[in-house]
């Protein structure tokens, strides 16, 4: 189980049709990495949040760190940022780079009396609290998956570049006494894929626009050599997490090699009868992702490569159905963390997922010109529908039941999904809750959920979406970009359960990006059909005055604009040649 196995900018608010990252970020300088799409960009700190000394005795010229430079030291550098230590005071400073990034830091030092390397302690943090923390303790700061708290040596008249983690904040402290260190720059080295934002979303509600872009940016951060779930933790290919991430990739970036590369890795790492990541539902998500990938891009050659594994997986799954048509899956039984201790919810969700998987399998077998297998798997799905799970009270499993027709959409929306607003949500399954609300026709309600839940993270200073978010934790909590005063809660360090206790909690988790594809699909109304050959446009603006945006297709970028006029929606479409449009 994701993390059971652990125990076992500035938001990128770019309201344009196509945006490239480097101009947006205002990088000082950049290098191409070894991979063709990967770029390393150097960023200057945006502000100084804290310093150990305000007297100008131990820390001098700190504001020079905020000035853009070249990253190159020189023998005649003057008035540099200066750290002076004694036995009694070893100075430290906390920097804010303005947004969550993936990478490390480059520290450059000028000439000083001693030519011995300078020892500095670095503490990276996704929040101010994490950057100010020590390893361990009740708030659970860790060096797991990626080092974020360690000591380095900086050379005399030279530079050092270290670190590979997810962070926004960096604290630096002098380790030894009697040091006099002139520092030219402390630049973040930001590593990302240099790809355009082909998809976009803009509406009359700026908060929704910001949420769409934050979801897109969160997934972009995780598009490293593989598609990870988190850039600080776990930095792994978790297949269930990939489903909302891949939907975001489809919506924002179009066809990108990181998706098939990651899907193939998961397939090859887990030969049958193993479940992917040890979790039966994650093997089902793998097949469901392939259905979506083919639907959006129509790559029959790639789908054909999966044929033998898909058939073997579906045949294996069929052996876990009992005489009452009930799933009896073994391995780790998991939907998401909030439902993990509720067996009735897990069963309800897995039963729905089995139906989804066999229906997808039937569809894909027909695409692969295997109609006999298409009929076989469709019959299995129909068998599974004969069993109606009882006793579920969770929004997550209820959403899956609505999506598969095991539960009435409108009744479930009123009696389960909308109860207590956005309490008992999860960032992962929030996407499927939105999908279920759309099936119930409650688009205004879904927009409110997006604004209240994902917008709640923005209100706390988030520049990427989190692994988990409980709206009840907001009470008496400070923003992640502020020091925590006495009597207030640290939204990062004081909360969390399961594997995301305290600072171990990931603040850039791709599975939380659900509003991005949802807004494009349901508000802009862009639904891809027939292996990407056709797009059906059915907008749902709710109370929005207008919504417009772009969407990557196999033929090029589609652009749409919808405006409410006297209770009717007027639509303008600019479609690339070859793309069939249905209304």
UniProtKB/TrEMBL annotation:
Gene3D superfamilies (UniProt xref): 1.50.10.10, Maltose phosphorylase, domain 3 (2.60.420.10)
Keywords: Signal
Regions crossing the membrane: none
The protein's name: Alpha-L-rhamnosidase
Keyword Signal: yes
Range of residues in the leader sequence: 1-26
Alphabetized PANTHER family for the sequence: ALPHA-L-RHAMNOSIDASE SIX-HAIRPIN GLYCOSIDASE DOMAIN-CONTAINING PROTEIN, C, PUTATIVE (AFU_ORTHOLOGUE AFUA_3G02880)-RELATED
Naturally occurring in which organism (per UniProt): Aggregatimonas sangjinii
Gene Ontology terms describing biological process: carbohydrate metabolic process
Record-linked InterPro entries: 6-hairpin_glycosidase_sf, 6hp_glycosidase-like_sf, Bac_rhamnosid6H
Domain named Alpha-L-rhamnosidase six-hairpin glycosidase: residues: 198-523
Highest taxon, organism lineage: Bacteria
């Amino acid at each position: 189980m994701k993390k059971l196995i652990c125990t076992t900018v500035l938001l990128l608010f770019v309201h344009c049709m196509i945006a490239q990252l480097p101009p947006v970020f205002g990088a000082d300088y950049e290098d191409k990495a070894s991979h063709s799409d990967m770029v390393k960009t150097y960023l200057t700190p945006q502000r100084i949040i804290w310093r150990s000394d305000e007297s100008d005795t131990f820390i001098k010229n700190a504001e020079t760190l905020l000035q853009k430079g070249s990253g190159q030291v020189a023998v005649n550098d003057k008035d540099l940022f200066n750290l002076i230590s004694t036995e009694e005071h070893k100075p430290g400073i906390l920097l804010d780079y303005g947004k969550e990034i993936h990478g490390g830091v480059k520290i450059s030092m000028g000439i000083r009396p001693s030519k011995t390397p300078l020892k500095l302690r670095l503490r990276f943090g996704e929040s101010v609290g994490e950057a100010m923390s020590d390893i361990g303790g009740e708030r659970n700061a860790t060096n797991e998956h990626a080092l974020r708290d360690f000591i380095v040596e900086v050379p005399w008249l030279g530079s050092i570049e270290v670190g590979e983690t997810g962070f926004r904040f960096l604290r630096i402290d002098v380790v030894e006494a009697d040091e006099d260190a002139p520092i030219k720059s402390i630049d973040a080295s930001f590593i990302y894929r240099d790809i355009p934002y082909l998809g976009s979303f803009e509406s009359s509600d700026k908060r929704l626009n910001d949420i769409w872009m934050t979801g897109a940016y969160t997934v972009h951060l995780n598009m490293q050599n593989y598609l990870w779930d988190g850039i600080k933790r776990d930095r792994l290919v978790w297949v269930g997490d990939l489903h909302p991430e891949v939907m975001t990739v489809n919506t924002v970036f179009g066809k990108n090699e990181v998706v098939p590369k990651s899907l193939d890795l998961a397939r090859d790492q887990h030969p049958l009868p193993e479940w992917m990541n040890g979790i039966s539902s994650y093997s089902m998500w793998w097949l469901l992702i392939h259905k979506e990938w083919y639907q959006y891009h129509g790559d029959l050659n790639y789908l054909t490569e999966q044929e033998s594994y898909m058939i073997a997986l579906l045949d294996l799954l069929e052996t876990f159905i009992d005489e009452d048509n009930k799933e009896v899956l073994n391995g780790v039984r998991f939907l998401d963390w909030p439902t993990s201790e509720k067996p009735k919810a897990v069963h309800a969700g897995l039963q729905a997922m089995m139906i989804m998987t066999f229906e997808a399998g039937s569809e894909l077998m027909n695409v692969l010109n295997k109609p006999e297998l298409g009929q076989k798997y469709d019959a299995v799905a129909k068998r599974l529908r004969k069993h109606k799970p009882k006793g579920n009270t969770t929004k997550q499993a209820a959403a899956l039941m609505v999506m598969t027709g095991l539960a009435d959409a409108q009744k479930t929306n009123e009696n389960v999904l909308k109860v207590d607003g956005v309490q008992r949500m999860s960032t992962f399954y929030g996407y499927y809750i939105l999908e279920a609300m759309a099936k119930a026709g409650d688009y205004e309600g879904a927009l409110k959920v997006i604004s209240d839940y994902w917008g709640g993270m923005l209100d706390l200073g988030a520049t990427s979406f989190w692994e988990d978010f409980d709206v009840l934790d907001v009470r008496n909590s400070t923003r992640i970009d502020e020091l925590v005063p006495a009597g207030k809660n640290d939204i990062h360090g004081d909360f969390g359960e399961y594997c995301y206790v305290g600072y171990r909690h990931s603040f850039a988790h791709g599975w939380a990006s659900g509003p991005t594809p949802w807004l494009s699909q349901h508000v802009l109304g862009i639904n891809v059909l027939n292996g990407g050959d056709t797009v059906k446009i059915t907008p749902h603006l709710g109370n929005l005055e207008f919504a417009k945006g772009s969407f990557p297709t196999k033929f090029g970028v589609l652009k749409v604009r919808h405006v409410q006029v006297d209770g009717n929606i007027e639509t303008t479409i600019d479609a690339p040649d070859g793309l069939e449009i249905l209304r």
